[in-house]
Specification:
The complex is a heterodimer of chains A (114) and B (112). Helices cover 0% and strands 49% of the residues of chain A. Chain A has no helices and eleven strands. Chain A starts with a strand and ends with a strand. With 112 residues, chain B is mainly beta. The chains are: A mainly beta (114), B mainly beta (112). The interface between A and B is medium-sized, with 27 and 25 residues.
């Protein structure tokens, strides 16, 4: 069990560029979450997968954001035409489907849009 | 609409003393509560949790208290150590839902 892995750890991009982040959850976890965190705020829910199905999306997830989890394993989060307001830490978390099971977070991807 | 609130952005405590971090929630359907600890540039790490059927859960130096009637929970750290200095997030979820709602965090500084 190597924990939740996220790549890259840091990403600097210019406004208007597209970026893609990857998350590898803990292998036996069928639930996968993406959160966004900005300075002084708690993690904000973006989207949630159960296996390969994307079951919930926050209204924070504009049409420039898309997430996938092919085959119910790793997940990708893509941001198209990045804006400065997209600068944040993007956190991935996973858990089993058991009741009252905690979330396990990765180390996050820190995105800076210049 | 902030369903989980941490009204103290920061807290400073002397080493060896008790740290008390507070959290309030508004959704009466929440029945599972968690505390996470976060260091800069790292993801949150799980600390302790409590379900709504209990009013107290203890794990070593960490104790979480739940007051359902007041919709309030607190995390006690005794004794506080410099390594406890971090941001602490309170989170809540419902039994039937899949979302976890987080507070805005309290930055704890333990002074040696």
């Amino acid at each position: 069990d190597t924990g939740v892995s996220q790549d890259p750890r840091h990403k600097i991009t210019k406004r208007g560029q597209n970026v893609t982040f990857r998350c590898d959850p803990i292998s036996e976890h069928n639930r996968l979450y993406w959160y966004r965190q900005t300075l002084g705020q708690g993690p904000e829910f973006l989207t949630y997968f159960q296996n390969e199905a994307q079951l919930e999306k926050s209204r924070l997830l504009s049409d420039r954001f898309s997430a996938e989890r092919p085959k119910g394993s790793f997940s990708t989060l893509e941001i198209q035409r990045t804006e400065q307001g997209d600068s944040a830490m993007y956190l991935c978390a996973s858990r089993t489907g058991a009741t009252n099971e905690k979330l396990f977070f990765g180390s996050g991807t820190q995105l800076s849009v210049l | 609409d902030q369903q989980v609130k941490q009204n103290s952005p920061s807290l400073s405590v002397q080493e060896g003393r008790i740290s008390i971090l507070n959290c309030d929630y508004t959704n009466s359907m929440f029945d599972y509560f968690l505390w996470y600890k976060k260091y800069p540039a790292e993801g949150p790490t799980f600390l302790i949790s409590i379900s709504s059927i209990k009013d107290k859960n203890e794990d070593g130096r960490f104790t979480v208290f739940l007051n359902k009637s007041a919709k309030h929970l607190s995390l006690h750290i005794v004794p506080s150590q410099p390594g406890d200095s971090a941001v602490y997030f309170c989170a809540a979820s419902t039994n039937t839902g899949n979302q976890f709602y987080f507070g805005t965090g309290t930055s704890l500084t333990v002074i040696p």
